[in-house]
Amino acid sequence: MKPAPTLSSAFLEPGRQSLPAPLLELRKQRGTALVDMPLPTRKTENWKYSSRHLKLTDELAATLPATGKDGLSLSLPGYRVVFHNGVMIPEASDFPDLDGIRIQRFADLDDDEAAALADRLDNTLDNRAVQMARLNSARFEDGLHIQLDKEAVLDQPLFIVHEVTGTASGSAYPRIYVDAARHSQITLVEEYLSSGNEPVMVNAVTEFMLGDGANVTSVQLVMEGENVQHIGATGVRQAANARFESHCVGFGGPLRRHDLMVRLEGEGGECKLNGVVVTQGKQHYDNHTSIEHVAAHCNSEETYRNIAADQSHAVFNGRIHIHEDAQKSNANMNNKNLLLSTGAEIDTKPELEIYADDVKCAHGATIGQLDKTSLFYLVSRGIGRREANTLLTMAFINELVEQIPVQAVKDAAQLRLNEFFDQTFEEA
Amino acid sequence: MLSIKNLHASVEGEEILKGINLEIKAGEVHAIMGPNGSGKSTLSQVLAGNETFEVTEGEITLNGENLLDLETEERAREGIFLAFQYPVEIPGVSNLQFLRTAVNAMRTHRGEPEMNAAEFMKLAREVSKQVDLDPAFLKRGVNEGFSGGEKKRNEIMQALLLQPKLAILDETDSGLDIDALQVVSKGVNALRADDRAILMVTHYQRLLNHIVPDYVHVLAGGKIVKSGGRELALELEERGYGWLGVKDEETTPSAAS
Fold first, then answer.
1. SS3 sequence, B17-42?
2. pLDDT at B257
3. Is the pLDDT of residue B253 over 70?
4. What is the pLDDT at residue A75?
5. Which residues in chain B are contacts of A395 at CB distance < 8 A?
6. Contact B158 A381 (CB under 8 A)
7. What values do phi and psi take at A33, rounded to 5?
8. Model pTM?
9. Does the distance separating the beta carbons of B50 and A391 come in below 8 Å?
């Protein structure tokens, strides 16, 4: 029998050392813990469908050079932070100094601040679920720490552009940590882009700590190219009466894997998780979500839609865990899936663990194709096949696209969707 | 305008239409009546190009052009319109978007410029009044949550917007109360024009009190067994289908027993 594959030691050698000492120390500890870490295989339950798409060659372990501002896509309006190949580019970033809000690059933290952050980093992540994301903690070479004091409100969305350039093989490990103190409010948009053709891995981790009554919206748009393996994790912890909203729109690639973990730890917490995934060609996209109802009287609402064309493969695994003391929990999960070709595959798995007896918990999952009768109705009015198919496919996700609270993201997603429709649907 | 010759069609290997012959000229209104299962709806669907039905023999031409060579959307652009017996609900696509896309597809086909949102909204509001639909329906999903009557009025509104050469109305009166029937009839009568033909498919003759046909045909067992003028419909109402040697469970209970 072949020995189980382990993480190559090449991945545990960060290329950059320009971080405050406490963070360098943390990174080293995390790296030590990953020595000989077994890589996920088909037998690893939560990587069952995706392990064969994970291709960690030693070339991917290299740190990608950051080139600076030139050639980056800077179309996004408003407050902006740009990461290139995992490193923040201050001259491409633009955000004001705001009362009660600190947006700091890891490299710019003083030792005390860095030590405080090092104590908190990883504390929203469930290690069992995010095996591969742990690599981020052993490799991050820069990052952003966002702190909102109590009642601070960021008056417009903060855009974070994560761009990687695959002119050579390598990997990037962007890292965001958001501390939102009580009754503070922020909308954070993360856009993942790429250029170049050489194989690249992006391993991105974003964490949100919400104080009492904090209100945080996270918007993620994953649009990297066919050369990029994207592994991401988002960890969220919510105190009492905090509200978290997530809108993820993702387009496929050789591997897209995202883990979203939310812990409702105080009474009256609320989360709403929306996701849209679109895959084509031989792409693969795997979303794992986990909502932990730890405290009583919390609401969670989750709606994910997958659309798979050609020979692509989409996976949705939605876990809801209602702890013993989480009485009066209200959890709703809905996953609908659309197969646009006979060669496409979608796997969906709701996982409910309920240990409290006075809860409302509903889940539903469907997999289907475009309705032929609806298509006939549309074309019988003179509407072309491509347009009719597009209307019906958009109808499947419209509700979620409409809910994205940032117009620039809606527009960017719609442009990419239109490309997808043009490539997928033919006129008769 | 429309010429159907020896049309045979089947679904899943079972022959439903067994040699239909029908000539319809511009400006005429024809009614096709017949008992359930006689093939009336199949004929409508075949004319519109529903791929569920296979045409095994015969021909259909519209102004000399072979319809059977055309896809459904091409037939629509050439002027075929089918008002569905069961209009489809499509949540997520607004009526406004649907109607404007359809109208613009036709305009593009005719080499006319597309209508922008404001222009179309104005037109849609006017036409919706003709069929007594509250313009607020334009914002809702296609037929989503519509009553039976609203769905039928929406079909007629589409015909008024698309101005077809041949409008086929499949059981447009079914499920309508008398008020809705009058609204729908008014809309259909507004469609009557010298350069347009209308083909009504109906089980009952009551619609024909409101929309008076020039010709009436009886379809039974996949064939037209009798043709006549307006008076044929009245005779059918009085005598049922039995005297034609045709069984109909619903209108002539004695024949069914």
1. EEEEEEEECCCCEEEEECCCCCCHHH
2. 33
3. no
4. 59
5. 90-93, 141
6. yes
7. -70, -20
8. 0.91
9. no
Alpha helix (H) residue ranges in B131-249? 148-162, 178-191, 206-210, 230-239
Q: Which segments of A197-298 are extended strands (E)?
A: 200-210, 215-222, 228-238, 243-251, 255-264, 270-279, 284-293
- What gap in Å lies between CA A244 and CA A291, rounded to an integer? 12
Does A366 contact B at CB distance below 8 Å? no
Average pLDDT over residues B17-28: 95
Backbone torsions φ then ψ of B175, nearest 5 degrees? 75, 10
Q: Which residues of B touch A383 (CB under 8 A)?
A: 73, 101-102, 105
Q: Determine the residue among B52, B94, B101 to mutate to test chain A binding: the one whose Cβ has the most chain A Cβ atoms within 10 Å.
A: B101
Identify the residue with better confidence: A426 or A388: A388
Average pLDDT over every residue of A20-27: 96
A148-192: pLDDT as tens digits: 999 999 999 999 999 999 989 999 999 999 999 999 999 999 999
> Is residue A3 in some structural domain?
no
Q: Give the CATH number of the domain where residue B34 resides.
A: 3.40.50.300
Of residues A368, A369, A317, A370, the one with CA closest to residue A347: A317
DSSP bridge partners of A354? A322
pLDDT confidence bin for B254, thresholds 50/70/90? very low
Contact flag B93-A395 (C-beta cutoff 8 Å): yes
Specify if A120 maps to a domain: yes
- B72–A376 C-beta distance less than 8 A: yes
Q: What is the mean pLDDT of residues A29-44?
A: 90
Of A384, A392, A399, Cβ closest to residue B73:
A384
For A153, the domain range is: 9-370
Number of domains in chain B: 1
Q: Inter-chain contact A381–B76, Cβ cutoff 8 Å?
A: yes
What are the backbone angles phi and psi of residue A151, rounded to the nearest 5°?
65, 5
The per-residue pLDDT of chain A, averaged, comes to 93
Name every chain B residue with its beta carbon within 8 A of the beta carbon of A382: 73, 76-77, 102, 105-106, 109, 162
Please choose, from the candidates B68, B93, B48, B53, the residue with its C-alpha nearest in 3D space to the C-alpha of residue B5. Answer: B68
Q: Among B196, B167, B232, B250, which residue's Cα sits nearest to residue B27?
A: B196
Closest residue in B to A385 (Cα–Cα) = B73
Q: Which amino acid is at B22?
A: L
Place of tokens 């007896």: A357
User: Does any CB of chain B come closer than 8 Å to the CB of residue A426?
Assistant: no
Q: Which residues of B touch A377 (CB under 8 A)?
A: 84, 87-88, 90, 142
A262 within some domain? yes
Q: At A225, phi and psi to the nearest 5?
A: -85, -175
How many independent structural domains does chain A possess?
Answer: 1
CB B105 to CB A376 under 8 A? no
Name every chain A residue with its beta carbon within 8 A of the beta carbon of B44: none
Report how many Cβ contacts below 8 Å link chain A to chain B.
Answer: 75
Average per-residue pLDDT in chain B?
A: 90
pLDDT digits (tens, 9 = 90+) for B142-192: 999 999 989 999 999 999 999 999 999 999 888 888 888 999 999 999 999
Span A329-350, pLDDT tens digits: 999 999 999 999 999 999 999 9
* The pair of three-digit structure tokens given for residue B87, joined into one six-digit string: 């209009």
- Using a CB-CB cut-off of 8 Å, the residues of chain A touching B164 are none
In a domain? residue A175: yes
Residue A368 CB: number of other CB atoms within 10 A?
Answer: 11
Q: Are strands A345-354 and A360-368 parallel, antiparallel or unpaired?
A: unpaired
- Which of A382, A391, A428 lies nearest to residue B162, judging by beta carbons? A382
In angstroms, the CA A172 to CA A174 distance is: 6
Residues of chain A found within 8 Å of residue B48, distances taken between Cβ atoms: 380
Partner B contacted by A385 (CB < 8 A)? yes
